[in-house]
Amino acid sequence: MQVQTGFRFRCYPTSAQAQVLLRWMGCQRFIDNAKVTEDRYYRKFARKALGLPEQYPPVDQQYSRYIDQELTPWLKDVPSQVLRNGAVRWRQAVARYFQGLGGRPVIRKKIGRQAVWLTSELFAFKPIVDTQTGEILGNRLTVGTPKMAVGDILFNAHRDYRIPNSIRIGVEAGKWFLSFSNECLSQVPDEAETVEWLRKFSEEELRARTFGGDRGVEIPLAGNHGETFDFDPVQKARMEKKAHQAKRYQRQMARQRTQAVKEKRPSGANYGKTKKRFAKSCQYGKNVREDFAHKTSRAIVHHPDHLLMVYEDLNVKGMTKKPKAKKDENGKWAKNQAAAKAGLSKKILTAAWGKTVTFTKYKAIKAGKLCIPINPYQTSQECAECGYIHPDNRVSQSEFVCQACGHQDNADHNAGRVIARRGVRLLLSGGYAPKEVKRCGIFRRKANEAIGPVRSEFTPGESIVSRMAGNGRTQGTGHPLPEGRNQEILFVREEPPTTTVQMV
What we know:
Layout: E1 4-12, H1 15-44, H2 80-98, E2 114-119, E3 123-129, E4 136-144, E5 149-156, E6 166-172, E7 175-183, H3 191-198, H4 203-208, E8 210-215, E9 221-223, E10 228-229, H5 233-262, H6 269-301, E11 308-312, H7 316-319, E12 326-327, E13 333-334, H8 338-350, H9 353-366, E14 370-374, E15 399-401, E16 408-410, H10 411-428
Helix pairs in contact: 1-2, 5-6, 6-9
């Protein structure tokens, strides 16, 4: 089975290049939002074109109708491929919706992370050759067309890569990034093959090779073998400091905006500076959480004694959802514990529950191992020794005492053992089956149907495009990775002991 490997490098465009790229981002976002708005309009009126009764408007990639000499003349200041890719992004999102891979396309806002999707007509990786030795030192990224050139953009490639067919250049909190994806050069086993291989182990043998992770608020992750994964004190102190700074910048932005409205003028340069400071303050916590999730998932997956990873199937989105407002008998707003819920939701999101499991899953696939979810019902109240379930077993946040057998243990450690046992029994009993992965593939055009270099008036509506995450399945057009250099850690398949499967 082939898997995708993502790459994200820091890049450093000049101020002039940054302005051009920001203009490209805005124009591509405008086309995408125009398609979303048009689709909403037609669906509101039974999705029927006004000039074509009883016929539904096609889901196409046409964009020429948005280019107007009077209303939108600035759309002609960017390459046509940038506009076309904006329509393709919308078309991909619609196809993902119909495949059940996501919701309907939404309006893309101007705040937060911004990115522009560039196909092979708009960029090129050119090798940098040492004039004295002839050795290839790396690549330089050239962006633009002969008519609308951006120039060479410096980027820092911290690992080996292959030349992609499409890239994304994005900016977040003032930092620029180059991202793309490639297919992994090495084959990894299919999930169904891994399931069949693990079922050859007995329950006791597999339980010894299983990691059961209990996610909590005080301790983000605790394992069944006594492991604990948490942020270090310096990170906690700095995240708390950055959170206070972000609140202060929010209040400052509100005052500056209110003053601008009173004086009937646009927001000044000070408002923009405060906005950048606010974004940088929020970015620190995000980077720390992502770093924690990567290091934790890597330590778990690449542990030599772990073959199966088990987590509770928690609905993190529902657990952190804001409670609905309620009214009492007199029609007045009643208390709904929104403030307390907000504090708990913040702690859950800070613990990076979702990222840790997501990163563990894809790392386990590459390592030839398995990560499965189990039912979280009463895992913190069940005794890992005798299986007795009672609310009084959980004496406190960190203490567990079984009311039946008297077993005493740390509550998180006990829950991790219960989670591991449930996962092993679920797998060996045949209750777990790999889900069928739905994909939206890219179908390339024939050579005589390719779009020419000039600005196209329309893109045929019959064209089918991908809506996979990132850049989809890309073909390796560059050179393969050098032997022995920064190769990814892949699976090492061992044979299980020749024993029969016994259920306890």
